[in-house]
Amino acid sequence: MKLSLIEKEIIENSIRDIKDFPKPGIVFKDITTLLNDKEAYGVLMNHLYTRYKEYNLNFIAGIDARGFIFGAALAQMLGIGFVPIRKKGKLPYTTIAEKYSLEYGVDEVEIHIDAFSKVPHAKVLLIDDLIATGGTANAAAKLINQAGAECVESCFILGLTFLDGIKNLQENTPVYTVVEVH
Ligand code: AMP
Question: Percent of the chain, pLDDT > 70?
Fold first, then answer.
């Protein structure tokens, strides 16, 4: 089901732009103003529920940290499990790790080795608030596959279409963005 123009506007208008955060030249998309707006948060979560209830998913995997908010809420609505993909050093049990490049240097995300073990060949939706360069999401999608599951789609509330992140990630998984930033 497609979002109506009015619904899309409600979501778009609820997201706040913070210029020069965390450093000069970056426009930070602040989703806290979506979360504290019950109408916008409701429209968004109902839309995601309607889209993904047809997918027969087994798990939602959310990326640290804002992907946890949308991912955990959606998993509960769909009646399925939630799996966190975290920044290095945060998960307590045995992990699989994947490095990815940043503008300067590298970062690393991890998943618990047994995160999907309750369901053989589990179908997983990856979710985060925003895709920029796609580095984080690409590493996260690889982790899902390495943990023995299938990443059937990657979902983002916001997609920055002026970067190559969406295009690059599409080589590994289908990508869905609720709102595009041009
Ligand atoms: P990337 O790996 O470049 O696609 O970056 C995606 C991650 O960085 C996501 O977890 C986002 O929450 C965060 N991020 C990157 N750029 C922005 C931005 N302009 N506004 C808010 N979050 C961002």
Answer: 100
